Amino acid sequence: MAVRPPRPRRFDVHVALGGLLGGLLLWGVGLATRPHTEPYVLLPGRWPLLLPLVVMAACELLRRSAPRTALLIGTPALVLDLVTQGNLVTILMYTDLMYAAVLYGPPASAHRIPRITGLLSVAGTVVPFAVWREPEALLIGVLIGLVAFGPAATGLIVRNHRDAAEAARLRAEQTALLSEVDRVQAVTAERSRMARELHDMVANHLSAIAIHSTAALSLEDERTSREALAVIRENSVQGLSEMRRLIGILRDGAGDREPAATPTLDGLGALVEGARANGLDVVLDATHDSLPAPVELAAYRIVQESLTNALKHAAPGTVAVRLRRLDDGLDIRVTSPYGGRDTPRAPGSGAGLIGMRERAALLDGTFEAGPESGPDGTLWAVRACLPVTDTTRGELE
Length: 397
Prior knowledge:
Blueprint: H1 10-29, H2 50-60, H3 67-82, H4 88-104, H5 107-132, H6 138-218, H7 222-251, H8 258-261, H9 268-277, E1 281-287, H10 293-313, E2 318-325, E3 329-337, H11 352-362, E4 366-374, E5 377-387, H12 390-396
Parallel strand pairs: 1-2
Antiparallel strand pairs: 2-3, 3-5, 4-5
Helix pairs in contact: 1-2, 1-4, 2-3, 2-4, 3-4, 4-5, 4-6, 5-6, 6-7, 6-10, 9-10, 10-11
């Protein structure tokens, strides 16, 4: 399959046409760089000037699509121009080919060409002066430097600036991409946190409301119905208060309302009393000292969700809540009678265990939940171990 040659750029076409027309203009008026009487003009006359001019203009078409090929073809054309009377435009187009070969060519050529042309400039200065011992011989090296080394060095400087700008642009794009990834992760993490908070705050109260409203509707005893309605009202008020606190946190950008809405282990007593009011037989055994706020919040929510699950799913019996401060963390254990109930007393979303496991994982803790055998029968046991380290305290302070 034949490979089509690369099409020249529009700008390159304009450069080639401009150079060709300019060279023809100088050729038409008879303006050359050297008189025909000089000894090294091997091809005197006007017509030999056209061949290197046309070849150099054709090379300009390849200055960006094939810069090395253009330079390799343009160099013999320049040598041919040197043995004629010379055309200034031919030399100028060659300097552009040298510049383009460094700027648009491969990296290896971009660094090799300036070194080669620099050595040729030095050799063109030293060797003729050493042979002829004439000051004018130094001009040969100067001309080589102006025609070859100068454009090559300029192309290398421009290429380095271009590569640096491209690298800076890529770094900026990568930084923007990483920032977007961090933003998405932060939004996802915040949504998960708010989902856990909403579930833990609202599920407990709504479960109690659902259970007691069912009892109030199914029983004909007026006293029992009034007690159930009182519990419903209390849980409604508490749930509404929790929701208002959470909404206040969301609306307050300064975050100074966070402490008022963050429960601590000091509130376990009130939490247990509320569970007892909802009909659970709860025993609390808690021994702990001051803990970091995230640990206390996670422990409180785990106990709260465990009591909510016991209210919905546990069989009649005692629910035991135990908290122990260990050397390396806080151990939480909540057990409730398991079995004997076909359907839950209130519907649930199934996200309670997931939320508790996520809270423990965020603190690099462990979480387990499942049935286990005990002296009083089968129990549903929830256990979490939340580590407390100096790093955790330092991050909080």
